[in-house]
UniProtKB/TrEMBL annotation:
Top-level taxonomic group: Bacteria
Residue stretches making up the SIS domain: 104-240
CDD domains linked to this entry: SIS_RpiR
SUPFAM superfamilies: Homeodomain-like, SIS domain
Phylogenetic lineage: Bacteria, Pseudomonadati, Pseudomonadota, Gammaproteobacteria, Enterobacterales
Stored PANTHER family: GLUCOKINASE, HTH-TYPE TRANSCRIPTIONAL REGULATOR HEXR-RELATED
Keyword Repeat annotated: no
Span of domain HTH rpiR-type: 1-73
Organism, scientific name: Pantoea endophytica
Keywords: DNA-binding, Transcription, Transcription regulation
InterPro entries xrefs: Homeodomain-like_sf, HTH_RpiR, RpiR-like, RpiR-like_SIS, SIS_dom, SIS_dom_sf, WH-like_DNA-bd_sf
Stated name of the protein: Transcriptional regulator
Length: 252
């Protein structure tokens, strides 16, 4: 994908960008320039210099080229070992992620009911999320039927948490549109922040890992980030509740 002669002109920091891209190309195509820089351990300026040395006008053109390369060569990179998960956890060790979790919890905090929905493995995690949130005292239900009837009365004072790796699952998009029509707040947890689901949502919690499809159909993308995000939001709800209780206590 990259010219060998041009690669020979890279300095150490620029080579770090190249090495990270080669190992994580399936995830990089969904990353912002800041996320790639942080994961590569360099500045955004270094990423832009890398783009220029590879003859790309900017980061957007680099990502477009990577997507074209993957589609043209039907490239399938299957991460193994702990590196992929460690990279994810490294990427979220910042105030921005903590604030995102806090904002998601704020959306859910005053809701009387939370609905979870997903298809396939995301559906299994939706069931887990509903149970986990119920454990922390938030009344939650899992919807496993894409044709489940949604009404205004049902979703009043509710939040829907929709899970989809691609953000383009037809059944989940159908549910998302029903929730939107009936004015229910929608939070999406997806690997694709530019997806249709993300655009339908009131709030997005994105994550970046290599998306892996077998025979262009069977998704074996890791769901570890989704579990961590769900548990982080749930635990934040507990912290917020304890904080509210402590403010109402009078010490004599």
């Amino acid at each position: 994908m990259f010219n060998a002669r041009k690669l020979s002109t890279l300095n150490a920091l620029e080579s770090s960008v190249h090495n990270y891209i080669i190992k994580n190309i399936n995830a990089v195509i969904y990353m912002t320039i800041r996320e790639l820089a942080d994961n590569s351990g360099v500045s955004t300026a270094t990423v832009l210099r890398f783009c220029k040395k590879m003859d790309f006008k900017g980061y957007s053109e680099l990502k477009a080229s990577m997507k074209l390369h993957l589609n043209k060569n039907n490239t399938l990179l299957i991460p193994h070992g702990a590196e992929e998960i460690l990279t994810f956890f490294k990427s979220i060790r910042n105030d921005e992620f903590d604030e995102m979790i806090n904002q998601a919890a704020q959306y859910i905090r005053d809701a009387e009911r939370v609905f979870f929905a997903g298809a396939g493995s995301s559906g299994t995690l939706g069931r887990y999320g509903a149970r986990f949130f119920s454990n922390v005292g938030k009344f939650s239900n899992h919807i496993d039927d894409p044709y489940y009837p949604v009404s205004t009365d049902m979703v009043q004072s509710s939040v829907a948490i929709l899970l989809s790796v691609s953000g383009e699952t037809p059944e989940i998009l159908k549910l998302a549109r029903q929730f939107v029509i009936h004015k229910c707040k929608v939070i999406s947890i997806t690997c694709n922040p530019d997806s249709t689901l993300a655009k339908l949502s009131d709030f997005i919690v994105p994550y970046h890992v290599s998306r892996i499809l077998i025979e262009s159909e069977y998704d074996i993308t890791t769901q570890v980030p989704v579990i961590f995000i769900l548990e982080s939001i749930g635990r934040k709800l507990v912290v917020n509740n304890l904080s509210d209780m402590s403010r109402g206590v009078t010490f004599l």
